[in-house]
């Protein structure tokens, strides 16, 4: 029996509307429960001014659990790898078994985020639904990715950006179009459910955007380059710090104890502002309230120590904090509007560290309004390009290099590209070859005339 393509597509759309809505509802309920519980615990712990003195103990316990109890934990990197390589087939429990670690770290003031557990919750629920429906590998991958995107949407409070981020973070240079509809439906559903259940999100539509002229666009271009270099430096610092920590010949829990002591000392030396999620200072920065020019450097230091020592928590919230405060610093440097550049830095640093310029441009629209969109998009793309072939997620695939002049084989995981590799051959386009040949001939003619 022959059936028109349109009929097949119609029933395929109905199928994915149902599946994506189901996954989105479940992810919204479970992720909201986690987020609300985490916020309550953090709120209660913040009532104790010196709770950060418990950081050495929480780091010690977190490393102890990681080493002896939670060996099969799935991190965001492992989820990306499973979706890319194994059609989303997840090894280990679908429940984020390191939720206890994340709560311990954040409750006592560790500089980390909450995105990783939500992404794990979403991907795990997608995997369970795939098992229940007994789907093939292609559909399993879509269902796991639906849950993955829905988890990010619950954290960002931006369903379109959450969906695009979950898709774009898989590979550099491509977007999988066949999963767009289910990812959007799952993300929107999860976001709406979490909103109904009481999860609150940060929105701050910018009321003032500088005019295109008067040097603003030049400042924007310089800012995009600055955020890209910051992104490169942050990724490399986290990588090097993690390698250095792993090389220390000490029992892992003892490393956690020492790392916690270092953070306590830094907190006493500087401020508590750089502990935990840091949402209040980040929001103040975007609202135009003055913050210290070195705030982004201190937050980066606190984050690097937390992630390399504790091996728990997510890095996205700290990246957003660092981006906003770096934008504030840059605005002070060039005499620009603080709110505008804090908002642009907020999304640009995330674009550079995760190679997701499209998702972060959408995030700017959903959080700060459409008026900032053209400028945020330019800065996000610049940051993405200037950060090089680096990523916070080593499992991210490099499909299309950031420049055709760089000879890198596509398809490999970014983590397999050694940052210390020898310089690669530069692929010159035809017009550059002709230009090079012209100047070479010109130099030869000049030397010939001198000889005469």
TrEMBL record:
Membrane-spanning segments: 7-31, 51-70, 144-177, 183-204, 216-238, 250-270, 291-309, 315-334, 365-387
Gene3D superfamilies to which the protein is assigned, alphabetical: Clc chloride channel
Cellular component annotations (GO), alphabetically ordered: membrane
Subcellular location: Membrane
Keywords, sorted A to Z: Membrane, Transmembrane, Transmembrane helix
Superkingdom of origin organism: Bacteria
Membrane topology: Multi-pass membrane protein
InterPro entries per UniProt: Cl-channel_core, ClC, ClC-type_chloride_channel
Molecular function as annotated in GO: chloride transmembrane transporter activity
Protein name listed in UniProt: Cl-channel voltage-gated family protein
High-level lineage: Bacteria, Pseudomonadati, Bacteroidota, Cytophagia, Cytophagales
